[in-house]
Amino acid sequence: MRKLPLFILTLIGFNLPMTTQGEETLYVSDELLTFIHRGPGTDYRIIGSLKSSDQVQLLNTNAETGYSQVIDYKGIISWLPKNKLRKTPSVKARIPLLEKENQELHEKLTTIDSNWNNQTSEMQSKVAASDQTIANLTAKNEKLKNELIRSGKKLEIAQINLDNNRRELILQWFMYGGGVAGAGLIFGLLLPHLIPRHKKHNERWMN
Question: How many CB atoms lie within 10 A of CB 95?
Fold first, then answer.
């Protein structure tokens, strides 16, 4: 006879208005344990419990009692207060996820920082190499300028020597020509004296 009231309550509970919903993934609230019942209320026997952030699938909701029918990860169908469910995992469950995301973000930032340092070091090496190249080119340019100046001075000296040689050559030609002309003049003056005269013979022939 004791089972009769419980059976009647079960019939009444299941005849209460319920909202049938498509399966929706929900999570148990932050409380340590939430008891689950065989029917939509505390009048129904407790058949177990769910831990905080356990994932369940929503099947139905009883609007009058405020209980929701769910199926848990073990495949057990039960009822628990609707206010014990939420659409997101609890803070306690999200802490490991947040820590994992934080670790991944930290690793990404470390990788980015390492890559940036490598790129910066490479750029600094290239700049240093460029500075060294510029310094070498500047030194070579200065050396070429000095060599050009020395070459210009040598060319100037060579030009002066060439002009002096030309002057000496011209002077030598003038001296040679003057000597020849002087010798010719002297020879011309001496030539009449060297040739014997035949004037008397000619006079005799004329007589």
Answer: 11
Which token pair is 119? 């790129």
Instruction: Give dist(CA 120, CA 113) in Å, integer.
Output: 10
Strand residue runs (E) in 63-150: 67-72, 77-81, 85-86
Contact assessment for residue 30 and residue 73, using Cβ atoms and an 8 Å cutoff: no
Mean pLDDT is highest, among 8-12, 27-31, 147-151, 172-176, for 147-151
Q: Is the pLDDT of residue 6 over 60?
A: no
The phi and psi torsions of 128 (rounded to 5 degrees) equal -60, -40
The pLDDT confidence band at residue 198, using thresholds 50, 70 and 90, is low
* Cβ–Cβ under 8 Å, residues 50 and 80: yes
The residues near 2 (Cβ < 8 Å, ≥ 6 apart) are none
Cβ atoms 57, 25 nearer than 8 A: yes
SS3 state of residue 132: helix
CA distances from 1 to 5, 9, 66, 164, 166 (A): 8, 13, 29, 151, 152
DSSP structural state of residue 153: H
Q: What is the pLDDT of residues 177-188, one digit of tens each?
A: 777 777 777 767
Predicted pLDDT of residue 202: 52
Asked if residue 44 lies in contact with residue 69, where contact means CB atoms within 8 angstroms, the answer is: no
Query: Whole-angstrom Cα distance, residue 61 to residue 40?
Result: 9
pLDDT of 75-110, one tens digit each? 999 999 999 888 887 666 667 777 788 888 888 988
